[in-house]
Every structure is written in C-alpha cells, then in structure tokens.
Amino acid sequence: MKSQYLQNPPVRFRPKTAVFYTVVAVVIAVVLVAATLYVYGVYGMVAKCWPWFFLAYGVWYLLGYPSFEVDRDELCIKNPFVSHRVGYPNLIDISTKFNLTLVTARKKYQAFAVPSTGMRAGLHTREEEITNLPSITYGGHGSVRTSDLPTGFSGSAAMVARGYWQEIVEDEALSTFPGIEESTFDVKGGVIFALLAFAAAVSVFL
Q1: Could you tell me the pTM of the whole model?
Q2: DSSP codes joined into one string, 107-175
Q3: Which helix (H) or strand (E) holds 191?
Q4: DSSP state of 10
Q5: 197 vs 189: CA distance, rounded Å
Q6: What gap in Å lies between CA 192 and CA 187, rounded to an integer?
Q7: DSSP per residue over 47-97, as a string?
Q8: 10 CB contacts (<8 Å, ≥6 apart)?
Q9: pLDDT (tens digit, 0 to 9) for every residue of the chain, 206 residues total?
C-alpha cells in the first residue's frame, strides 16, 4: 500500500540530543581512562577504569539506544531493558501527552526516545502546517496539542504513525495486518549494564 505518511519504511525516530550526549560521554570516558592509565599504569586499566566504561555505556544505553520505529506491519519501541512490538489492529490511540505512547486494550507502551515537545514547537508552526494532519490529532474545536505539532519531534513521529494507521483504517485493510502485541526483555543489554555497574562499584574500593 502506497502511503502519504510512511515512505521508505522503516522510519526510525531517535532524538539528536541522544547522539550528542553519547558522544560527550564517550569523549569524557576516553579522557578519564587515559588519565587513569597515566597515573596508575596497567593496574589502572584493570582496577580503576570501570566507572568510566560504565559512564560511556550507561549514557549510550539510556539515551542513545532507545528509538521508535514505524514499519509497514508494526510499530516498534526500543527502551532500555525492554522492547515492545505493536500491530496496527491492536491500537486504540497514539498519545503524546508525556512521551509518545501506544495505547492498546491491554496496556500503554511509552517510547522513551520520543518525549513530548514543549511550547517551543508552537513558535515555528504555521497555520497551514496543521490543517491536514491525521484526524486523531485534533481535539475539541480543531485544537492541536503542542506535543502534536508537526514541527516538534513528538508531533512529527506521531504524524507518521497516526497517518499510516489512518490510511490502513480508511482502506478497510486493518484485518489484513498482523495483530502483534509483545514485549521482549533486552537480556544482552541489561546484563552488560548490570555487570558494568557492579564492576564500577567494586572498583571504587580497589
């Protein structure tokens, strides 16, 4: 199905600030590792550098790793420690009140990678940009929540997901899509995070 909203899927959303914070954390960690090696030598690498390794990995895992993905058959949320897959037939609502949230009959799934946009988005929005949004976007009397404005990050992500979902419904094709709703724990990422946190704590006493 050709879509006005979903082009070249999957479309992945990840805030630019996450990349910035990750790069800053890695640079700081590298500098601290180098300084530790200079002071303590090889012993420093083995016993003293774990807090800096945990700093770099922790910032990436908590800020750089999370994402929200809109695909042809499903929506995927990657949060730290757990990921969620939701099919379009399972959706009841797509909210941006706090974070972009997929609402089903069973649960609400928040995308940590897509926090709600603040008032700043309204300063860069023209009236013509909010006239042809997916119908679910509008509140009473055609009002649009600030976090739903297409000039903001949460609004642009919601527009793609809502728009494609609306197209499926209007084409009466919802029954042809898989009814997916599952959550998966990120075993590898969680174990690495826990081990590095433990090693960082132990190294403080060495």
Answers
A1: 0.86
A2: -EEEEEEEEPP-GGGGGG--GGGGSSS-GGGB-GGG-B-GGG-TTSHHHHHHHHHHHHHHHHHHTT-GG
A3: helix 187-203
A4: P
A5: 12
A6: 9
A7: HT-HHHHHHHHHHIIIIIS-EEEE-SSEEEEEETTEEEEEEGGGEEEEE-S
A8: 69, 70, 71, 72, 76
A9: 678 889 889 999 998 888 899 999 999 999 999 998 888 887 777 788 899 999 999 999 999 999 999 999 999 999 999 999 999 999 999 999 889 999 999 999 999 999 987 655 555 555 555 666 777 777 665 667 677 788 788 888 999 999 999 999 999 999 999 999 999 999 999 999 999 999 999 988 76
Contact criterion met (CB below 8 Å) for 178 and 87: yes
Q: Which residues, including other chains, have CB under 8 Å from residue 20's CB and lie 6 or more apart?
A: none
158 token code pair: 């919601």
pLDDT of res. 203? 87
Burial (CB count within 10 angstroms: exposed 0-12, middle 13-18, buried 19+), residue 87 = middle
Backbone dihedral angles phi then psi of residue 200, each to the nearest 5 degrees = -65, -40
**What local confidence, expressed as pLDDT, does residue 85 receive?**
97
DSSP class of 181: E
